[in-house]
UniProtKB/TrEMBL annotation, chain A:
Keywords: Cytoplasm, Exosome, Nucleus, RNA-binding, rRNA processing. Gene3D superfamilies: GHMP Kinase, N-terminal domain. This is Ribosomal RNA-processing protein 43. Residues 27-52 are annotated as: Disordered. Residues 29-38 have a biased composition (Low complexity). It is found in: Cytoplasm; Nucleus, Nucleolus. Belongs to the RNase PH family. Residues 49-255 form the Exoribonuclease phosphorolytic domain. InterPro entries: ExoRNase_PH_dom1, ExoRNase_PH_dom2_sf, Exosome_comp_Rrp42_subfam, PNPase/RNase_PH_dom_sf, Ribosomal_Su5_D2-typ_SF. One of its GO terms (biological process) is U1 snRNA 3'-end processing. One of its GO terms (cellular component) is cytoplasmic exosome (RNase complex). The lineage of its organism: Eukaryota, Fungi, Dikarya, Ascomycota, Pezizomycotina. It comes from Staphylotrichum longicolle. GO terms for molecular function: mRNA 3'-UTR AU-rich region binding. It comes from the Eukaryota.
Automatic annotation (TrEMBL), chain B:
This is Exoribonuclease phosphorolytic domain-containing protein. It is found in: Nucleus. InterPro entries: ExoRNase_PH_dom1, ExoRNase_PH_dom2_sf, PNPase/RNase_PH_dom_sf, Ribosomal_Su5_D2-typ_SF, RNase_PH. One of its GO terms (cellular component) is nucleolus. It comes from Staphylotrichum longicolle.
Length: 370, 253
């Protein structure tokens, strides 16, 4: 007696037993392989095929920079808003020792000077929100999930590690170039004012003297609030989130700010804006490892597939994940970050090969960025 | 405390926990407790395997997003080496309390740092494995971890093992690698600016520390081995820490 065969439609099979469903798709039976010989994933992609990226910049009118990124059904919107932080409000503010040190800051040092300011004064504030309803597992009215917290830490870490934005570009100071020209006028106007108010002027006078000598003084920093909202969630959140952050920062235009010595305020121009200088184009590329045996104790046995750009179903069935952030904008491939966790399948050789896959992804995303 | 100091460990330091360990190395001191398998909460319950719950508590203050990230990394790694399939519908809870971390004299110390602290990962991993051993939780393999930095100095690359906070600040790239006792790469976290070639060098260095094959004979060979060692032998250390505990426990026989 043969066992009765049940024909289930795909979505029900996927819901009932997702692991065999995915496995069945990846290993097409030899008998009915006439039409689909190549193993495909449940979403119709090949194992090393990523979803196309669509990026729309400047989609928010009230942010200084924004981008909407769609990777398949994962949609994330990122808005960057700058706010001025006067240095008087920074606890433990250390004025720059000398202007020449700015040149060496730009390099690779993650701690000295410029990038140190980014970290010390918290000039970059990323936040990630997973909207209720973006995926069934996100419930309303709960505190930020572990996923949201992990993502925001990863974005924060990577923002600092890649040196995408530099503190030098976020500084607002008494411009050294113009000061010499303006000094005469400042002196005259200030001279009358000092005669008017005699009290509490010592500090101010010292500042003026510094300006007269042509020194640049930092008066405020721009703080960039980078807010990400997942409108729809279908796996691989980090790649989409990071692409959105980079696209939004590249789109950011901060209003021209200058120090008004008469009012002792930083004033922003209504019309004049200046594009934020973003260095490099790091692109994240994630993959998950799907194991043939769900129940085995020794993960080494059985076949496995590396699924590039996993969707939500695949992510729930895979333990081991790898994310590599590469930047090929200088011609040479530089790895900015690598995270591999949750398994032992991906070893040294696979990581080497995976960097090549990430380079391919970089080209795709670069094209989408335009 | 200098970075080159040898690792120290004590097992079974907490009387009430199923297993516990205290570990200090490279300026970090971490105490871990392991309870399990215990009854899982309804929402954590899994029909086929044990849920591994990792809680990281910082030295000061309450845990933030950074601790959540460390927890998720440790959780995914440890559930690979623990035989979770043996204990369906149960919970194995690992609490890691950071007691001491090295301070960087060059910068203002800030309590809240959202950025990932790479150097603490090996200490957390090592303590968790020791505590799991102490609790007698069945494992597929043990794990050893190390942190490595690459710095550019006078035009030459310099690889530093067990970096100090100052090393991390001046380094071009920071790497944390963990290997199982079957020499498999369990965890690889890197950050900074590096090439595949540099990563290969890091891999070799880390593997030499984590997976050095234990000397076949005790005595002379071991002494010689220690002299030309480029760093601490983590696997041997793990073995000797567990061995010392067993010897102490069986002393009455």
């Amino acid at each position: 007696m043969t066992a009765p065969t049940i024909n289930l439609p795909g979505p029900i099979f996927a819901k009932l037993s997702p692991h065999p469903f995915l496995l069945r798709n990846l290993t097409p039976a030899a008998s009915n392989s006439s039409s689909s010989a190549a193993p495909t994933r449940t979403n119709g992609r090949a194992s090393q095929e990523a979803r196309p990226v669509h990026i729309t910049a400047s989609s928010l009118s009230h942010a200084h920079g924004s981008a909407l990124v769609r990777v398949g059904d994962t949609t994330v919107i990122c808005g960057v808003r700058g706010e001025l932080l006067p240095v008087e409000r920074i606890p433990q503010f250390r004025p720059l020792v000398d202007n020449n040190s700015q040149d060496e800051i730009g390099g690779t040092g993650t701690g000295t000077g410029g990038s140190g300011a980014l970290r010390d004064y918290d000039l970059l504030v990323p936040n990630i929100e997973l909207a209720t309803g973006a995926a069934p597992q996100f419930l309303p009215g709960v505190p930020p999930t572990a996923l949201a917290q992990t993502l925001s830490t990863r974005v924060y870490s990577l923002l600092h590690a890649t040196g995408l934005v530099e503190a030098a570009d976020l500084r607002c100071g008494t411009a050294p170039g113009r000061s010499a020209r303006r000094v005469g006028r400042i002196r005259r106007t200030v001279g009358t004012r000092i005669r008017k108010w005699e009290r509490g002027m010592r500090r101010r006078r010292r500042r003026r003297r510094a300006e007269v000598e042509g020194e640049e003084r930092v008066v405020a920093y721009w703080v960039l609030y980078v807010d990400l909202l997942f409108l729809s969630f279908d796996g691989n959140p980090f790649d989409a989130a990071w692409a959105a952050v980079v696209a939004a920062l590249r789109d950011t235009k901060l209003p021209a700010a200058r120090w008004d010595p008469d009012r002792e305020l930083v004033v922003c121009s209504r019309t004049e804006e200046r594009k934020l200088n973003v260095r490099g184009l790091p692109v994240a590329c994630s993959a998950a490892v799907f194991m043939e045996k769900e129940q085995s104790d020794a993960p080494g046995e059985g076949r496995n597939w590396i699924l590039l750009d996993p969707d939500r179903l695949e992510e729930t069935l895979c333990r081991e994940m790898i994310t590599v952030v590469v930047d090929c904008s200088d011609g040479e491939t530089r790895i900015k970050s690598m995270e591999k966790q949750g398994g032992t399948v991906i070893g040294r050789e696979l990581i080497r090969g995976y960097v090549g896959v990430a380079e391919g992804r970089w080209k795709e995303v670069q094209k989408a960025m335009g | 405390m200098t970075a080159t100091s040898a690792p120290e460990a004590a097992l079974g330091v907490l009387p009430r926990a199923d297993g516990s360990a205290k570990y200090s190395h490279a300026g970090y001191t971490v105490t871990a407790s392991v309870n399990g398998p215990i009854e899982a909460q309804r929402r954590d319950e899994h029909a086929y395997e044990a849920h591994v719950d990792v809680i990281v508590r910082p030295a000061a203050g309450v845990g933030g997003t950074r601790e959540r990230h460390l927890e998720s990394i440790l959780q995914s790694s440890l559930s690979q080496i623990i035989l979770v399939k043996n204990f369906p519908r149960s919970l194995i809870q690992i609490v890691l309390q950071v007691e001491d971390s090295p301070e960087n004299d060059y910068v203002n110390t800030k309590l809240v740092q959202a950025s990932l602290n790479f150097a603490i990962m090996p200490a957390l991993m090592q303590t968790a494995v020791l505590a799991l051993l102490s609790a007698g939780v069945p494992m597929r393999a043990t794990a050893t971890a190390t942190a490595v930095t690459i710095a550019q100095q006078d035009g030459a690359k310099r690889i530093t093992v067990d970096p100090t906070p100052r090393d991390i600040e001046t380094a071009r790239s920071v790497h944390v690698l963990a290997f199982t006792s079957h020499d498999e790469l369990l965890l690889a976290e890197s950050e900074g600016d590096f090439t595949v070639k540099e990563w290969d060098d890091v891999y070799e260095t880390a593997k030499a520390i984590c997976c050095r094959s234990a000397p076949a004979k005790e005595g002379v060979a071991m002494v010689l081995d220690d002299e030309d060692a480029s760093g601490p032998d983590m696997r041997q250390f793990l073995r000797s820490a567990a061995g010392a505990k067993v010897a102490a426990d069986l002393h009455w026989k």
